[in-house]
Amino acid sequence: MKAIVCLKQVPDTSGKVAVKDNGQLDRGSMATITNPDDLNALEAALQLKETIGCDEVVVVSMGPPAAENMLRECIARGADRGVLVCGGEFAGSDTFATSQIIAAAINKIGVGPEDIVFCGRQAIDGDTAQVGPQIAEKLNIPQVTYVTEIKKEGDALICKRALEDGFMVVKVKTPCLLTCIKELNEPRYMSVSGIFGAYDKQIEIYDYPALKDDPLIETDTIGLKGSPTNVFKSFTPPQKGAGQMLTSDSPETELAGILTGKHLI
Amino acid sequence: MAEYDFRDIAAFEGVWVYCEQRQGTLVPTDFELLSEGRKLANEYGCELTGVLLGDGMTDEMAKELAGYGADNIMICDSPLLKEYTTDAYTKVICDLVREYKPAVLLIGASTIGRDLAPRCAARLHTGLTADATHLDVDTAEYIEFLKTSSYPGYVESQKFDMEDRNLKMTRPAFGGHLMATIICPRFRPQMSTVRPGVLKKAPFDQAKADAVKITRPEFSLTAEDCKTEVLSVEKAAKKLVDLSGADVIVSVGRGIGKDVEKGIALAEQLAEVLGGGVVGASRAVVDSGWITADHQVGQTGKTVRPKIYVALGISGAIQHVAGMQDSETIIAVNKNEDAPIFGVADYGICGDLFKVVPELIKQIELAKK
Q1: Which of A168, A171, A174, A231 to mutate to test the interface with B (most CBs of B within 10 A)?
Q2: pLDDT of A240 over the 90 cut
C-alpha cells in the first residue's frame, strides 16, 4: 500500500496580509508556508508508514515552481517521493478545476486497492474545504472528512470524524480519501539527515501535456477561463470608524455608564 | 425524462435548500437558509423547496421548515439515511437535482454540509461557492448591498449589467480583508454553502407552514451504495460552548499569559455580569492549550456576532477580527495602545486587564443597581 498526501503552499495569513490597490492579494510580498492542516495529513501518512509499514509516502502539490521547496521539506520530514503539478494552463483554477487536475495527477501516480489519499481539511488562503472531497468524487473513492483519529483494521480504516458537538466513528474501506484536522496529531520537524537526503531526490514535475490525456481532465474546465466559478467582483470592506478610547481617570466607570446608557446591560 | 444537461441554463428553475437534521432534530441553520432562500425565490419569481433527508422524518418537521418560507418540502426517508453518510446523501440529492433541475442549491456550511456540498458539486459538474455570507439575484439589490459593504467610491467605479440574473454569492476571503462575489455563469445548479449564524432568520409564518406542499419522491438507494459505515455518533463528554448563539462573549488572548487561570476566571465573571455570556478565545490561547478549541473565535474557529463582544488581551490578528467584527458592540482591553484590536473596537481601554477587569466588574454591578 502507499499513502498519497496532497499539500498546498499558502501565503502566511497569520502575519500581515498585503492587499494591492486593485483589491487583489499581494502574494509576492507575503511569506509562504505549508498549509497547516496539510502537515497533519503528512504526519498521519508518516505514522501509518511507521506503524504498519506502507510502501511509500508520495507528496503531491499543485502550484508554482517555488512549491518544489515545500515538497523537499516534506521529504526531509520522511516522505519518499515528491510530485509537483505545475503549468500555466492550471493557473487560476477554482476548486472544481483544481480537484480534477490533482485527481488526474493521483491517477498517474496510481491508486491501488489498499492506498489512502490524505488531505488537510482546508487551506488557510481560501478556507473552502472543497478540494479534498472533490478529488475523492473524481477518483470515485469514499471519503471521511474532519478526521481526528485513524486506526487500521484489516482492509478497513476506523476513523473518528469531528462534528460541531461531538464526533462520529466511521468505518471506511480502502482505497479512500481522508481530510485531516489539527487535533489528529502533532506534525514532526524535519530531521537533519532528512534535509540532506531531500536535496538528492528528484521532484517529478507533471505539466499540462503530462496530464491532459487523462480521462479525468476536461480541457474546457481547467484554469482561470475554464473554472465553473468566476470572481464577479472583489472589494475591500469599508474601514470601520475609529472607536472611542476611554481615557478618563476611571475608564471602567465611564464604560459601565455607557453600557447602561445604551441599555446594553 | 429529458437528458440532464448542466449547461442548459434555461432548463433549471427553483431555489432549493438542503435541510440538515442531527438525530432527528432540525438545525437552526435550516431556518436561516430557508429565510434567505425565500428572498432569492422571490427575486427569481420561482418556488422555494426544502429537501429533508433522514429516517422517520415527519410532516410536522416539514411544516416547521415551511414556516420560514418554503413552498414545498421534499422528504426522502429511509433507514439507510438514518445517519449521515457522504455516499448515501450525495446519491439521493444528486439524483433529485438531475430529475427536478433546481437553479439554486444552498447547503449550510456545517461540518456535514462541507462534506456533502463539494461531493455533490463535483458529481453534478457545477461550481460551488464556500461559506457565503450574502446572496443576491437582482443587480439593483446587489448594488444596494455593495453601497454599505464596500469602501466609498467602489460602486461608482464599477459597471453593472442590470439584466444579469446570476446568483451573486459573496464571501469573505483572506481573513475578511477582501470580499469576493462569486458567480457560476455556465453551469447549473448554482451552489453555495452558507456560513451558519450570519443570515437573518425570518419570523415563523404559520400560514406558510399550513400551506406547505409535502412530497415524498421516489428514490433508489441500496446498502451497496454506501462505502462507509457509521459505527457510532457520540456527543462530546463535556458540553461544548455555544459561541454562535451567545449574546455576550468575553474573549481572552495571549494577554492572560501572566496568570492563565485568573484571566479565564475574570473573563467568566465579566461575562456573567454582562448578562450571562460565554468565554471565547483567540487562536493563540487555544494553541497554547490554555482552553479547549470549542472556545476559539476566528477564521478557522467560529464567526460570532453577539450584542456585546469583549476582547481581553487580544492583539487583533486578522483571523480573529474576521470572526468577531460584526458584533454589535465591541469593547477591547489591551496593554498596548497600538494593538490593532482598538481599530475595530467601539470602546477601548488601554491598561492591564488584571487591573481593569475587576474594577469594570465592580462598576457594572454598581451601575446596574
Answers
A1: A168
A2: no
3-state secondary structure of A33: strand
Give tens-digit pLDDT for B170-211.
Answer: 998 776 678 899 999 999 999 999 988 788 899 999 999 999
Residues 6+ apart with CB under 8 A from B277: B246, B247, B248, B249, B250, B271, B306, B308
Query: Contact A172/B228, CB-based, under 8 Å?
Result: yes
Mean of the per-residue pLDDT values of chain A: 91
Predicted local distance difference test score (pLDDT) of residue B286:
87
What's the domain range around A189? Answer: 2-261
B149 in Cβ contact with B181 (< 8 Å): no
Q: Which chain B residues have a beta carbon less than 8 Å from that of A244?
A: 346-348
Buried b (16+ CB within 10 A) or exposed e, B179-218: bbbbbbbbbbbbbbbbbbbbbebbeeeeebbeebebeeee
The percentage of chain A sitting over the pLDDT mark of 90, rounded to a whole number, equals 72
**Predicted confidence (pLDDT) at residue A39 exceeds the cutoff of 70:** yes
Taken as a whole, chain B contains a residue count of 369
* Residue among B149, B348, B356 whose CB faces A252 most closely: B356
The pTM score is 0.85
**Given an 8 Å threshold on Cβ–Cβ distance, is B182 in contact with A128?**
no
* Order of strands across the sheet that contains A143-153: A204-206, A81-85, A56-62, A2-7, A116-120, A176-180, A143-153, A156-163, A166-173, B228-235
For A89-116, the DSSP string reads GGTT--HHHHHHHHHHHHHHH---TT-E
Residues β-bridged to residue A7: A61
Distance, CA of B253 to CA of B310 (rounded, Å): 11
Torsion of CA B252, B253, B259, B264, to 10 degrees: 20
Which residues of B fall within a CB distance of 8 Å from A161? 111
- Which has more confidence, A53 or B30? B30
Query: How many domains is chain A built from?
Result: 1
Over residues B319-329, mean pLDDT:
85
pLDDT tens readout for residues B100-115: 999 999 999 999 999 9
Identity of the residue in A167, A228, A255 whose CB atom sits nearest the CB atom of B347: A255
Most confident of A248-262, B99-113, B292-306: B99-113
The set of cell numbers assigned to A237 is 470592506
Among B286, B198, B281, B311, which Cα is nearest to B245's? B198
Strand duo B168-173 + B178-183: pairing: antiparallel
Q: Going from the N-terminus, what domains does chain B have, and what CATH number goes with each?
A: 9-225 (3.40.50.620), 248-368 (3.40.50.1220)
C-beta atoms of B325 and A240 within 8 A: yes
Which chain A residues are within 8 Å of B151, Cβ to Cβ? Answer: 235-239
CATH code, domain carrying A164: 3.40.50.620
Question: What ipTM was estimated for this complex?
Answer: 0.90
- Distance in angstroms (rounded) separating the CA atoms of residues A195 and A199: 7
Q: Which residues contact A53 (CB under 8 A, 6 or more apart)?
A: none
| Set of chain B residues whose Cβ sits within 8 Å of the Cβ of A17 | 174-175, 177, 318
pLDDT band at B26 (very low <50, low <70, confident <90, very high): very high
CB contact under 8 A, A234 and B149: no
Per the structure block, which three cell numbers stand in for B297? 473565535
Distance CA A119, CA A230 (A): 24
Closest CA–CA distance from residue B237 to any residue of chain A (Å): 8
Please determine, for residue A200, whether its predicted confidence score (pLDDT) is greater than 90.
no
Mean per-residue pLDDT, B346-369: 93
